[in-house]
Design a protein that fits this description.
Radius of gyration: 17 Å
Protein name: Hydroxymethylglutaryl-CoA lyase
Shape: globular
Bound molecules: 3-hydroxy-3-methylglutaryl-coenzyme A, magnesium ion
GO molecular function, one term: hydroxymethylglutaryl-CoA lyase activity
Number of strands: 9
Domain Pyruvate carboxyltransferase: 6-274
Helix content: 40-55%
GO biological process, one term: ketone body biosynthetic process
Largest sheet: 9 strands, parallel
Strand content: 5-15%
Keywords: Lyase, Metal-binding
Length: 298
């Protein structure tokens, strides 16, 4: 069966804009977030408190948070890799944070400048302090289905990494197909191992990139297994600057089109959302890669 309602975790302002060549002005980011809230999205990942040299596109995190008009009932989580990032997020008044680990050694090194063991040591005090401050903490795991340097990734390894991050005190585990290579059978295998490791499906989210056009099929496979939180990005913006061959995330419009058709509630107004992505595409100077945005607004 399918869930009656799905929570969309909108990552456009973070995963989307972190990968743009040009740095998007903070005014445009703020309007983007306002429009996404007005379109009915209830979780807007706003930015990352990472090293500004590593991701210059999000170097305006403090300014963005200071000027953000938070909509009622909307959550605005941010990424934090380490205690320095958490300090910055706390100073900005953030209430929800996400740590982001890797399932593979190579990507841990490239994305975090850490070994796998070192990544846990980095995250442990972040989660402990965030929880002590009453914050909610999500854990991402990247490269859950394949890694550009290491190839296929063993689902039992993904599950072990995810469990270890959850055991630090996180409330949700987002399984990332960073480079968009997964297919639905793999999704079933990874979700099976994650459940076997003791992480309940209620705590699991899926995060698909659409490089090979499989994101929607993979999402449907996950929904059939009981997942009810799906990450996506308005207009299909996105990618990771430290992952070779990563393209945009699953487009939120593509997801909403499918869920509307299936009678699964999201609370999202597709029309307003497509307008927002068309507006953003104009700001970025190129058309949205989302099939649904092109069909509705092309
Ligand atoms: P490092 O070079 O090892 O940092 O980078 P360090 O701990 O050695 O510190 C060096 C200096 O940086 C120090 O300053 C720190 O204070 C400063 P100094 O004492 O030399 O003057 N520093 C910071 N400054 C500001 N904010 C901070 C911060 N941390 C240290 N947070 C680090 C380690 C983790 C910082 C770096 O590797 C980094 O910023 N990485 C982030 C990469 C990133 O954002 N990638 C994209 C997000 S992940 C993703 O997109 C995947 C996802 O979507 C899921 C999926 O698709 O799979 C989530
Ligand atoms: Mg991503």
């Amino acid at each position: 069966g399918l869930p009656s309602r799905v929570t969309i975790w909108e990552v456009g302002a973070r995963d989307g804009l972190q990968n743009e060549q040009a740095v998007v002005p903070v005014e445009v980011k703020l309007e983007f977030l306002d429009r996404l809230a007005a379109a009915g999205l209830g979780v807007l990942e706003a930015t990352s408190f990472v090293h500004p040299r590593w991701v210059p596109q999000l170097a305006d995190a403090e300014d963005l948070l200071a000027r953000l008009r938070q909509a009622d009932g909307v959550r605005y989580p941010v990424l934090v890799p380490n205690e320095r990032g958490l300090d910055r997020a706390l100073a900005a008044g953030v209430r929800h944070v996400a740590i982001f680990g890797s399932a593979t050694e190579t990507f841990a090194k490239r994305n975090l400048n850490r070994t796998l063991d070192e990544q846990y040591a980095m995250f442990e005090p972040v989660v402990a302090r965030a929880r002590a401050e009453g914050l909610d903490v999500r854990a991402y795991v990247s490269m859950c289905f394949g890694d550009p340097w290491e190839g296929p990734v063993d689902p039992t390894r993904v599950a072990a990494v995810g469990k270890r991050l959850m055991d630090l005190g996180c409330s949700q585990l987002s399984l990332g197909d960073t480079i968009g290579v997964a297919t639905p059978g793999q999704v079933e295998a990874v979700l099976g191992q994650v459940a076997a490791a003791g992480v309940g499906v209620d705590a699991v989210a899926v995060h698909f990139h659409d490089t090979y056009g499989q994101a929607l099929s993979n999402t449907l496979a996950a929904l059939r297994l009981g997942v009810t939180t799906v990450d996506s990005s308005a207009g299909g913006l996105g990618g990771c600057p430290y992952a070779e061959s990563a393209t945009g995330n699953l487009a939120t419009e593509d997801l909403v089109w499918m869920l509307d058709g299936l009678g699964v509630e999201t609370g999202v107004d597709l029309d307003k959302l497509a307008d927002t992505s068309a507006w953003m595409a104009e700001r970025l100077g190129r058309p949205s890669p989302s099939r649904v945005v092109r069909a509705l607004r092309g």
